[in-house]
Amino acid sequence: MRQVTFGGANSLDNFIARSDHAVDWLLWCDEAAQIMAEFWPTIDTIVMGRKTYDVQRRMTADGVTPEGDYSGVKTYVFSRTLPEGPDGGATIVREDAADFVRRLKAQDGKGICVMGGGDLARSLFEAGLIDRLGLNIHPVLLGSGIPLFHQMTRPIGLELEESRPFKNGCIYASYRVVY
Amino acid sequence: MRQVTFGGANSLDNFIARSDHAVDWLLWCDEAAQIMAEFWPTIDTIVMGRKTYDVQRRMTADGVTPEGDYSGVKTYVFSRTLPEGPDGGATIVREDAADFVRRLKAQDGKGICVMGGGDLARSLFEAGLIDRLGLNIHPVLLGSGIPLFHQMTRPIGLELEESRPFKNGCIYASYRVVY
After folding, report:
1. Cβ proximity of A160 and B141 under 8 Å
2. Residue A59 pLDDT class (50, 70, 90 cuts)
3. Smallest Cβ distance to B158: which of A135, A140, A163?
4. Which residues of A touch B (CB under 8 A)?
5. ipTM value of the model?
6. A4-178 maps to which CATH number?
7. Of the four, A99, A147, B77, B160, which is 20 to 30 A from A168 by CA?
8. What are the residue boundaries of the structural domains of chain A, listed by start?
9. Residue ranges of E strands in chain B
């Protein structure tokens, strides 16, 4: 069964971006870059929600290159409003995200990465489909913004795999999800 | 100037208790107990909000002994509804919490501990009065509950002092607050 990984950089108070989607507070470091460089070759599929897709398209339009090597990676975007089918390098999916990801997991392939905000992650956690969690916890309380973890209908158990502080004050933490 | 410390045990998704105040998900460990045993002698004052006080009184009524050695520690509870003055071992304060804590900090004495939920911490963070933050981040997503960090009107910068994983999968993290 393919592994589904969710995660990213978050503030200590559980935000992934300011309310206006700004991520100017993110800290760059070699240690996180190294972890990501090792992670990308383990996946061949990215799934994201429509809001994350919009943010990525705006960033691309502004000339910002997304982090990571996306060559050979299939990207699916879940949306109830965009027309289904190919859209640039991505594929828009109207089907229920949990049903779709459950089917993806049963297919042969490398890992699957859940990217972006927590709306999609919430439904995948609730459906028992996320296997791993990787965080780069930043030393800041943003006070408001877009949450990484949304409210869920049930608790999700975790097993810490690794945690270490980076030189820039971030804390790296990776977990296995226990359902 | 006396140091004001806020913190406690939280879930990875920023809750300190389930919606019904239950903390049955908290993990005991010698390493956290050791850190707390070293912390208590550095303080002589606890401040808390009325809701935390209510929870503590219910626990005491149920025969649960609060963690830590409170002998010789002065406890202030901020409330707009309880009568001002002594109440059991505590003192009820009706004054604005930030004004009161600012005055406490200017007095001679040991450290001050902000206990409990984040309602009080939010106003003290916003007033620039919290100096240190100590967390015992538990390996669980509670999904809902009482948040540790509340929404704030401004971001708060932090400097990581120490972080290490405990054997039970919790992550200890201590920060200096940078205003």
Report:
1. no
2. confident
3. A140
4. 12-14, 25, 125, 135, 137, 139-144, 148-149, 151-160, 162-165, 169-171, 173, 175
5. 0.94
6. 3.40.430.10
7. A147
8. 4-178
9. 4-11, 15-17, 43-49, 74-78, 85-87, 90-93, 111-115, 132-138, 140-141, 146-147, 156-165, 171-178
What's the CATH architecture for B4-47+94-178? 3-Layer(aba) Sandwich (3.40)
pLDDT of A66 > 90? The answer is no
For chain A, counts of helices (H) and of strands (E)? 4, 12
Query: How many Å apart are CA A164 and CA B165, to the nearest integer?
Result: 7
Q: Any idea which of A66-75, A106-115, B118-127, B136-145 has the lowest mean pLDDT?
A: A66-75
CA distance between the termini of chain A: 15
Q: What is the pLDDT of residue B67?
A: 60
Whether A159 sits inside 8 A of B153 (CB atoms) is no
**Do B105 and B39 touch, CB atoms closer than 8 A?**
no
Q: Which two tokens stand for residue A9?
A: 């950089």
Cβ-Cβ contacts under 8 Å, B152 against chain A: 141, 143-144
Is pTM, for the whole model, over 0.90? yes
